[in-house]
Amino acid sequence: MPSADQPPLPPVDRIPSDVVAADDYRQAARRHLDDNAWAYLQGGAADELTLDDNVEAFRQIHLLPQPLNDVRGGHTRLRLFGRDYAHPILLAPVAYQRLFHPAGEMATVLGAGAMQAGMVVSSLATCRLEEIAAQAEAPLWFQLYWQGSRAASLELVRRAEAAGYAVLVLTVDAAVFGVRNREQRAGFALPAGIAAVNLAAGANAGLSGTGGANVFDRLMTTAPHWDDVAWLVEHSRLPVVLKGILHPQDARRAVEAGVQGLVVSNHGGRTLDTTPASIDILPAIKTVVGADFPLLLDGGIRRGSDIFKALALGASAVLVGRPYVHALATAGALGVAHLLRLLREELEITMALCGARDLAALDAQFLLNPP
Protein backbone atom coordinates (compact mmCIF):
# COMPACT_ATOMS: atom_id res chain seq x y z
CA MET A 1 0.00 0.00 0.00
CA PRO A 2 1.46 3.40 -0.97
CA SER A 3 2.43 5.77 1.83
CA ALA A 4 3.69 9.33 2.07
CA ASP A 5 7.29 8.13 1.69
CA GLN A 6 6.39 5.39 -0.81
CA PRO A 7 4.45 6.88 -3.73
CA PRO A 8 2.17 4.75 -5.92
CA LEU A 9 3.83 2.58 -8.50
CA PRO A 10 3.30 3.50 -12.16
CA PRO A 11 1.22 1.10 -14.29
CA VAL A 12 3.19 -1.86 -15.64
CA ASP A 13 3.43 -2.96 -19.27
CA ARG A 14 2.78 -6.64 -18.57
CA ILE A 15 0.29 -8.79 -16.71
CA PRO A 16 1.59 -9.57 -13.21
CA SER A 17 2.18 -13.30 -12.93
CA ASP A 18 0.03 -13.60 -9.81
CA VAL A 19 -3.05 -12.00 -11.40
CA VAL A 20 -5.43 -14.77 -12.45
CA ALA A 21 -8.81 -13.40 -11.32
CA ALA A 22 -10.61 -10.08 -10.95
CA ASP A 23 -9.92 -9.84 -7.22
CA ASP A 24 -6.18 -10.16 -7.89
CA TYR A 25 -6.41 -6.94 -9.87
CA ARG A 26 -8.08 -5.26 -6.92
CA GLN A 27 -5.17 -6.15 -4.70
CA ALA A 28 -2.64 -5.17 -7.34
CA ALA A 29 -4.32 -1.83 -8.03
CA ARG A 30 -3.87 -0.69 -4.43
CA ARG A 31 -0.12 -0.51 -5.04
CA HIS A 32 -0.66 1.76 -8.04
CA LEU A 33 -3.13 4.28 -6.59
CA ASP A 34 -2.77 6.91 -3.90
CA ASP A 35 -5.21 7.27 -1.01
CA ASN A 36 -7.17 9.96 -2.84
CA ALA A 37 -7.90 7.88 -5.94
CA TRP A 38 -8.45 4.72 -3.90
CA ALA A 39 -11.09 6.36 -1.72
CA TYR A 40 -12.96 7.59 -4.80
CA LEU A 41 -12.82 4.23 -6.58
CA GLN A 42 -13.58 1.89 -3.69
CA GLY A 43 -15.93 4.01 -1.65
CA GLY A 44 -19.67 3.72 -1.37
CA ALA A 45 -22.41 5.70 0.31
CA ALA A 46 -22.66 6.02 4.10
CA ASP A 47 -21.91 2.67 5.81
CA GLU A 48 -21.32 0.96 2.45
CA LEU A 49 -23.83 -1.79 3.16
CA THR A 50 -25.19 -1.82 -0.38
CA LEU A 51 -21.64 -1.77 -1.72
CA ASP A 52 -20.92 -5.00 0.15
CA ASP A 53 -24.33 -6.54 -0.56
CA ASN A 54 -23.83 -6.23 -4.32
CA VAL A 55 -21.01 -8.77 -4.12
CA GLU A 56 -22.35 -10.89 -1.27
CA ALA A 57 -25.73 -11.43 -2.96
CA PHE A 58 -24.10 -13.39 -5.77
CA ARG A 59 -22.44 -15.70 -3.23
CA GLN A 60 -25.86 -16.62 -1.84
CA ILE A 61 -27.05 -17.92 -5.24
CA HIS A 62 -25.85 -21.44 -5.95
CA LEU A 63 -25.41 -23.06 -9.34
CA LEU A 64 -27.34 -26.24 -10.18
CA PRO A 65 -25.50 -27.83 -13.13
CA GLN A 66 -26.87 -30.25 -15.72
CA PRO A 67 -23.59 -31.77 -16.93
CA LEU A 68 -24.91 -34.23 -19.54
CA ASN A 69 -26.47 -31.57 -21.76
CA ASP A 70 -24.98 -31.33 -25.24
CA VAL A 71 -23.10 -28.00 -25.44
CA ARG A 72 -21.03 -28.66 -28.58
CA GLY A 73 -20.80 -25.56 -30.74
CA GLY A 74 -21.64 -23.32 -27.81
CA HIS A 75 -20.96 -19.59 -27.81
CA THR A 76 -21.56 -16.33 -25.91
CA ARG A 77 -22.78 -14.17 -28.82
CA LEU A 78 -25.77 -11.88 -28.53
CA ARG A 79 -27.51 -9.02 -30.30
CA LEU A 80 -28.43 -5.78 -28.53
CA PHE A 81 -30.10 -2.74 -30.06
CA GLY A 82 -29.41 -3.93 -33.59
CA ARG A 83 -25.71 -4.71 -33.08
CA ASP A 84 -23.85 -7.97 -32.58
CA TYR A 85 -21.61 -8.54 -29.56
CA ALA A 86 -19.15 -11.37 -28.99
CA HIS A 87 -20.09 -11.68 -25.34
CA PRO A 88 -22.45 -10.05 -22.80
CA ILE A 89 -19.80 -8.12 -20.83
CA LEU A 90 -19.77 -4.33 -21.19
CA LEU A 91 -17.64 -1.79 -19.36
CA ALA A 92 -19.73 0.40 -17.09
CA PRO A 93 -19.41 4.19 -17.12
CA VAL A 94 -16.72 5.26 -14.65
CA ALA A 95 -15.86 8.93 -14.20
CA TYR A 96 -12.45 10.62 -14.16
CA GLN A 97 -10.40 7.66 -15.40
CA ARG A 98 -7.20 9.67 -15.57
CA LEU A 99 -7.28 9.40 -11.78
CA PHE A 100 -6.32 5.78 -12.30
CA HIS A 101 -4.10 5.82 -15.40
CA PRO A 102 -2.38 8.64 -17.30
CA ALA A 103 -4.21 7.78 -20.52
CA GLY A 104 -7.57 7.38 -18.82
CA GLU A 105 -10.45 6.44 -21.11
CA MET A 106 -8.12 6.23 -24.12
CA ALA A 107 -6.44 3.19 -22.56
CA THR A 108 -9.77 1.68 -21.51
CA VAL A 109 -11.24 1.86 -25.01
CA LEU A 110 -8.17 0.12 -26.46
CA GLY A 111 -8.55 -2.72 -23.97
CA ALA A 112 -12.27 -2.98 -24.68
CA GLY A 113 -11.64 -3.14 -28.42
CA ALA A 114 -9.09 -5.91 -28.06
CA MET A 115 -11.78 -8.08 -26.48
CA GLN A 116 -14.68 -6.81 -28.64
CA ALA A 117 -16.39 -5.46 -25.54
CA GLY A 118 -18.89 -2.63 -25.55
CA MET A 119 -17.90 0.36 -23.44
CA VAL A 120 -20.19 2.94 -21.83
CA VAL A 121 -18.40 6.30 -21.78
CA SER A 122 -19.20 8.55 -18.82
CA SER A 123 -20.35 12.16 -19.10
CA LEU A 124 -17.55 12.78 -16.60
CA ALA A 125 -14.84 11.32 -18.83
CA THR A 126 -11.43 12.96 -18.75
CA CYS A 127 -10.95 12.52 -22.52
CA ARG A 128 -13.10 14.03 -25.26
CA LEU A 129 -15.87 11.71 -26.34
CA GLU A 130 -14.94 12.20 -30.00
CA GLU A 131 -11.33 11.14 -29.35
CA ILE A 132 -12.50 8.04 -27.49
CA ALA A 133 -14.79 7.13 -30.39
CA ALA A 134 -11.95 7.50 -32.88
CA GLN A 135 -10.03 4.75 -31.03
CA ALA A 136 -12.98 2.38 -30.61
CA GLU A 137 -13.07 -1.04 -32.25
CA ALA A 138 -16.32 -2.14 -30.61
CA PRO A 139 -19.65 -0.35 -30.06
CA LEU A 140 -19.59 2.60 -27.69
CA TRP A 141 -22.53 3.73 -25.56
CA PHE A 142 -22.72 7.20 -24.07
CA GLN A 143 -23.81 7.72 -20.47
CA LEU A 144 -25.64 10.99 -19.97
CA TYR A 145 -26.02 12.88 -16.73
CA TRP A 146 -28.90 15.31 -17.16
CA GLN A 147 -27.30 18.71 -17.70
CA GLY A 148 -29.89 20.80 -15.92
CA SER A 149 -31.87 21.69 -19.01
CA ARG A 150 -33.15 20.02 -22.13
CA ALA A 151 -31.07 22.26 -24.38
CA ALA A 152 -27.78 21.52 -22.61
CA SER A 153 -28.54 17.81 -22.41
CA LEU A 154 -29.44 17.61 -26.09
CA GLU A 155 -26.22 19.38 -27.06
CA LEU A 156 -24.23 16.60 -25.43
CA VAL A 157 -26.47 13.94 -27.00
CA ARG A 158 -25.92 15.40 -30.46
CA ARG A 159 -22.15 15.20 -29.98
CA ALA A 160 -22.43 11.53 -29.06
CA GLU A 161 -24.64 10.85 -32.08
CA ALA A 162 -22.24 12.61 -34.43
CA ALA A 163 -19.29 10.68 -33.01
CA GLY A 164 -20.97 7.33 -33.76
CA TYR A 165 -22.10 6.19 -30.33
CA ALA A 166 -24.65 3.37 -30.55
CA VAL A 167 -26.80 3.75 -27.41
CA LEU A 168 -27.67 6.58 -25.03
CA VAL A 169 -27.72 5.68 -21.32
CA LEU A 170 -29.42 8.23 -19.05
CA THR A 171 -28.40 7.81 -15.41
CA VAL A 172 -31.38 8.66 -13.21
CA ASP A 173 -30.27 7.73 -9.68
CA ALA A 174 -27.65 10.41 -8.96
CA ALA A 175 -29.24 13.85 -9.10
CA VAL A 176 -27.06 14.54 -6.05
CA PHE A 177 -24.06 12.67 -4.74
CA GLY A 178 -24.61 10.19 -1.96
CA VAL A 179 -23.13 10.69 1.49
CA ARG A 180 -19.67 9.33 0.76
CA ASN A 181 -18.00 9.22 4.14
CA ARG A 182 -14.93 7.36 2.91
CA GLU A 183 -14.17 10.18 0.46
CA GLN A 184 -14.82 12.76 3.16
CA ARG A 185 -12.40 11.09 5.56
CA ALA A 186 -9.75 10.95 2.84
CA GLY A 187 -10.30 14.59 1.89
CA PHE A 188 -10.94 13.57 -1.71
CA ALA A 189 -10.32 16.20 -4.38
CA LEU A 190 -9.68 16.01 -8.09
CA PRO A 191 -5.99 16.62 -8.82
CA ALA A 192 -5.01 19.54 -11.01
CA GLY A 193 -5.46 18.80 -14.69
CA ILE A 194 -8.17 16.17 -14.23
CA ALA A 195 -11.64 17.35 -15.17
CA ALA A 196 -14.84 16.39 -17.00
CA VAL A 197 -13.62 17.79 -20.33
CA ASN A 198 -16.87 17.14 -22.22
CA LEU A 199 -18.92 19.41 -19.99
CA ALA A 200 -19.14 23.17 -19.82
CA ALA A 201 -17.17 24.75 -16.98
CA GLY A 202 -19.07 24.24 -13.74
CA ALA A 203 -21.55 21.77 -15.19
CA ASN A 204 -22.71 19.22 -12.62
CA ALA A 205 -20.72 21.00 -9.94
CA GLY A 206 -23.86 20.99 -7.83
CA LEU A 207 -23.83 17.22 -7.63
CA SER A 208 -21.54 17.44 -4.65
CA GLY A 209 -23.71 19.85 -2.70
CA THR A 210 -25.24 18.75 0.58
CA GLY A 211 -27.77 19.91 3.06
CA GLY A 212 -31.31 21.22 3.24
CA ALA A 213 -32.20 24.01 0.86
CA ASN A 214 -29.14 23.32 -1.29
CA VAL A 215 -30.62 19.91 -2.14
CA PHE A 216 -34.31 20.67 -2.51
CA ASP A 217 -34.31 24.31 -3.57
CA ARG A 218 -31.34 24.23 -5.95
CA LEU A 219 -30.06 20.84 -7.05
CA MET A 220 -33.36 19.02 -7.39
CA THR A 221 -34.92 21.87 -9.35
CA THR A 222 -32.81 20.85 -12.36
CA ALA A 223 -33.10 17.07 -11.94
CA PRO A 224 -34.87 15.14 -14.74
CA HIS A 225 -38.43 13.87 -14.41
CA TRP A 226 -40.57 11.42 -16.35
CA ASP A 227 -41.64 14.06 -18.89
CA ASP A 228 -37.95 14.74 -19.58
CA VAL A 229 -37.41 11.03 -20.22
CA ALA A 230 -40.25 10.96 -22.73
CA TRP A 231 -38.84 14.11 -24.36
CA LEU A 232 -35.38 12.54 -24.61
CA VAL A 233 -36.78 9.39 -26.20
CA GLU A 234 -38.55 11.56 -28.78
CA HIS A 235 -35.50 13.69 -29.62
CA SER A 236 -32.64 11.20 -29.43
CA ARG A 237 -31.59 9.42 -32.60
CA LEU A 238 -30.20 6.62 -30.45
CA PRO A 239 -31.96 3.96 -28.37
CA VAL A 240 -32.47 5.37 -24.87
CA VAL A 241 -31.65 3.20 -21.85
CA LEU A 242 -32.30 4.23 -18.25
CA LYS A 243 -29.62 3.35 -15.70
CA GLY A 244 -30.40 3.26 -11.99
CA ILE A 245 -33.79 1.54 -11.97
CA LEU A 246 -34.64 -0.57 -8.89
CA HIS A 247 -38.39 -0.17 -8.42
CA PRO A 248 -40.69 -2.35 -10.56
CA GLN A 249 -43.12 0.56 -10.85
CA ASP A 250 -40.33 2.68 -12.39
CA ALA A 251 -39.60 -0.13 -14.83
CA ARG A 252 -43.23 -0.09 -15.93
CA ARG A 253 -43.24 3.68 -16.35
CA ALA A 254 -40.01 3.53 -18.35
CA VAL A 255 -41.54 1.10 -20.82
CA GLU A 256 -44.60 3.34 -21.11
CA ALA A 257 -42.31 6.33 -21.79
CA GLY A 258 -40.79 4.53 -24.75
CA VAL A 259 -37.44 3.69 -23.20
CA GLN A 260 -35.79 0.84 -25.10
CA GLY A 261 -33.75 -0.73 -22.31
CA LEU A 262 -32.98 -0.59 -18.59
CA VAL A 263 -29.93 -1.04 -16.39
CA VAL A 264 -30.86 -2.48 -13.00
CA SER A 265 -28.36 -0.67 -10.82
CA ASN A 266 -27.82 0.95 -7.43
CA HIS A 267 -24.89 2.97 -8.79
CA GLY A 268 -22.38 0.55 -7.33
CA GLY A 269 -23.62 1.38 -3.85
CA ARG A 270 -22.35 4.96 -4.27
CA THR A 271 -25.53 7.03 -3.99
CA LEU A 272 -28.08 5.62 -1.50
CA ASP A 273 -27.08 3.07 1.11
CA THR A 274 -29.29 0.10 2.12
CA THR A 275 -30.97 -0.19 -1.27
CA PRO A 276 -31.17 -3.83 -2.43
CA ALA A 277 -28.38 -5.55 -4.26
CA SER A 278 -28.96 -5.23 -7.99
CA ILE A 279 -29.13 -8.99 -8.52
CA ASP A 280 -31.79 -9.36 -5.80
CA ILE A 281 -34.21 -6.98 -7.55
CA LEU A 282 -33.48 -8.16 -11.10
CA PRO A 283 -36.18 -10.90 -11.24
CA ALA A 284 -38.91 -8.48 -10.16
CA ILE A 285 -37.90 -6.00 -12.88
CA LYS A 286 -37.79 -8.80 -15.46
CA THR A 287 -41.33 -9.80 -14.56
CA VAL A 288 -42.51 -6.27 -15.38
CA VAL A 289 -40.65 -5.67 -18.65
CA GLY A 290 -41.07 -9.11 -20.21
CA ALA A 291 -38.82 -11.65 -21.83
CA ASP A 292 -37.71 -9.67 -24.90
CA PHE A 293 -37.02 -6.28 -23.33
CA PRO A 294 -33.26 -5.48 -23.06
CA LEU A 295 -32.27 -5.55 -19.41
CA LEU A 296 -28.74 -5.11 -18.10
CA LEU A 297 -27.42 -5.81 -14.61
CA ASP A 298 -24.86 -3.49 -13.00
CA GLY A 299 -23.25 -4.06 -9.61
CA GLY A 300 -21.27 -6.83 -7.93
CA ILE A 301 -19.92 -8.74 -10.95
CA ARG A 302 -16.60 -10.27 -9.94
CA ARG A 303 -16.64 -13.68 -11.63
CA GLY A 304 -17.86 -15.29 -14.83
CA SER A 305 -20.22 -17.32 -12.67
CA ASP A 306 -21.77 -14.03 -11.51
CA ILE A 307 -22.46 -13.17 -15.14
CA PHE A 308 -24.04 -16.60 -15.63
CA LYS A 309 -26.31 -16.03 -12.62
CA ALA A 310 -27.36 -12.58 -13.82
CA LEU A 311 -28.26 -13.87 -17.26
CA ALA A 312 -30.07 -16.85 -15.79
CA LEU A 313 -32.22 -14.43 -13.79
CA GLY A 314 -33.19 -12.39 -16.83
CA ALA A 315 -30.39 -10.00 -17.72
CA SER A 316 -29.50 -9.62 -21.39
CA ALA A 317 -25.95 -8.50 -20.52
CA VAL A 318 -23.96 -7.12 -17.60
CA LEU A 319 -21.91 -4.03 -16.83
CA VAL A 320 -18.57 -4.38 -15.02
CA GLY A 321 -17.19 -1.36 -13.17
CA ARG A 322 -14.56 -1.41 -10.44
CA PRO A 323 -12.78 -4.60 -11.63
CA TYR A 324 -11.77 -3.12 -14.98
CA VAL A 325 -10.58 0.08 -13.30
CA HIS A 326 -8.39 -2.04 -11.02
CA ALA A 327 -6.96 -3.63 -14.17
CA LEU A 328 -6.53 -0.22 -15.82
CA ALA A 329 -4.61 1.10 -12.83
CA THR A 330 -2.38 -1.96 -12.80
CA ALA A 331 -1.56 -2.52 -16.46
CA GLY A 332 -3.41 -0.01 -18.62
CA ALA A 333 -5.12 -1.18 -21.80
CA LEU A 334 -3.44 -4.58 -21.50
CA GLY A 335 -4.92 -5.03 -18.05
CA VAL A 336 -8.43 -4.09 -19.20
CA ALA A 337 -8.26 -6.59 -22.05
CA HIS A 338 -6.92 -9.29 -19.72
CA LEU A 339 -9.65 -8.68 -17.15
CA LEU A 340 -12.30 -9.01 -19.85
CA ARG A 341 -10.68 -12.19 -21.12
CA LEU A 342 -10.67 -13.69 -17.62
CA LEU A 343 -14.37 -12.96 -17.11
CA ARG A 344 -15.34 -14.26 -20.55
CA GLU A 345 -13.38 -17.48 -20.08
CA GLU A 346 -14.92 -17.99 -16.65
CA LEU A 347 -18.37 -17.47 -18.16
CA GLU A 348 -17.68 -19.99 -20.91
CA ILE A 349 -16.40 -22.57 -18.42
CA THR A 350 -19.45 -22.03 -16.19
CA MET A 351 -21.78 -22.45 -19.16
CA ALA A 352 -20.04 -25.64 -20.27
CA LEU A 353 -20.04 -27.21 -16.81
CA CYS A 354 -23.66 -26.23 -16.16
CA GLY A 355 -24.84 -27.56 -19.52
CA ALA A 356 -25.83 -24.29 -21.22
CA ARG A 357 -24.89 -24.12 -24.90
CA ASP A 358 -25.61 -20.42 -25.44
CA LEU A 359 -27.02 -17.41 -23.65
CA ALA A 360 -30.57 -18.17 -24.76
CA ALA A 361 -30.39 -21.41 -22.77
CA LEU A 362 -29.75 -19.63 -19.48
CA ASP A 363 -32.65 -19.48 -17.04
CA ALA A 364 -33.39 -20.10 -13.38
CA GLN A 365 -33.36 -23.89 -13.80
CA PHE A 366 -29.56 -23.65 -13.41
CA LEU A 367 -29.86 -21.98 -9.99
CA LEU A 368 -30.64 -23.70 -6.70
CA ASN A 369 -31.94 -20.71 -4.75
CA PRO A 370 -32.69 -17.74 -7.02
CA PRO A 371 -33.87 -14.56 -5.29
CATH topology: TIM Barrel
Name the beta content range.
5-15%
Number-wise, the strands total 10
For the termini, the CA-CA separation is 37 Å
Structural Rg: 20 Å
Unreliable stretches (pLDDT < 50, length at least 5) are 204-211
Q: Strands of the largest sheet, in order across it? A: 3-10-9-8-7-6-5-4
Q: Domain count, please report it.
A: 1
Mean pLDDT score: 94
Write structural notes for this entry.
With 371 residues, this protein is of the alpha/beta class. The protein has a single domain, classed as TIM Barrel. Helix content is 39%, strand content 11%. A hairpin with a 2-residue loop joins strand 1 and strand 2.
List keywords for this structure.
371 residues, alpha/beta, two-stranded antiparallel ribbon, 39% helix, globular, TIM Barrel, eight-stranded parallel sheet, 10 strands
